[in-house]
Design a protein that fits this description.
CATH topology of the largest domain: TIM Barrel
Strand content: 15-25%
Helix content: 25-40%
CATH superfamily of the largest domain: Alanine racemase
Distance between the termini: 38 Å
CATH architecture of the largest domain: Alpha-Beta Barrel
Radius of gyration: 22 Å
Number of helices: 11
CATH class of the largest domain: Alpha Beta
Number of domains: 2
Shape: elongated
Length: about 375
Amino acid sequence: MLPSTSSSASPVLAAVRESDLPTPALVIDATRVAKNIKRMADYTAAHRLQLRPHTKTHKSRHCARLQLEAGAIGLTVAKAGEAAVFAATGADILVAYPALDPARTRQLAQLARTTSVRVAVDSRFAIDALAAAAQAAATELGILIELDVGLGRTGVSTAAESLSLAEHVARTSGVRLDGILCYPGHIWAAANDQASPLELVALKLTDAIALWRKQGLEARIVSGGSTPTAFQSHLVTAYTEIRPGTYIFNDLNTVRGGYCTLADCAAAVVCTVVSDAVRDQVVIDGGTKTFTSDFCLPARESGHGFIFEYPEARIARMTEEHGQVDVSRCERRPRVGERVTVIPNHICPCVNLHDVIWWGEPDQAPQPMRVDARGKLS
């Protein structure tokens, strides 16, 4: 159970609970966003790291501009559709995903005519596809070779494999070898326990960099990082930049992992209690179409989110439109018609489910803000 304390309370969310805003409503506390952005910007500046935040969390040009104004050198996206949305900010774009089908490679090549675009790859197929598209568009795409450092999702496994791909890029027109990308997404240890797993990441990167140098190739960019490991990124001395995303809003994953507190959570979904007909249960008007069905990675048995006003409650089950809340341990129980505030387990896919977010500045009614890159899945 997480405590609900006065120090964690958000005036913006409190105001929304008393408003007639239609629920479920994804509400963003602008003051907390600003604090989260500043904290990460200060950390990277202090450790001489560059910051290229992942936009998958907010999917918002407004949020991206706030990050860029605070010193971010560019933006990270997953898909070509997102790249097109965020190119409007004027930022350099890194596609941290193997874009290799004709539609995406053509779109990225066209974007590269006016915007700096880099793509992470782990196959010759992807390199050749991107090169062909760039040649047809009379432009050039930057390439980062993805190296798997432990997650086992994408990325080549060895330094030798990364070298082979790097050499292929170096001799192929239309593409430019810019460096190495990794994602330490497997590291969910407490911050004080991350030195050992990050040392393994560092060793794998330095081995690859050294092998490249022996063959006359340079990894000018070494891009890594995640929100759980963000503030220990200086332990991986090979990094030149990091790409955290969730930090801008935070969620229950980052809270229960010990990487932030409830007071750092800038996003929450305000829901209405719509039923108490079943014993020891209330139902809120947010289900999987509001929150997704993600469990909390550091605490899988904790339910589908945290109800701020009722910390003893547990969102035990979600269907499409219903959140079934076990209130058997609550001394005081929610009433039908009452509004409650839910911190999602995983904020990134949650944002993608909403057409708008409600942006709350201090002493102002929250205003609707379009989720610019919502649904950009290709």
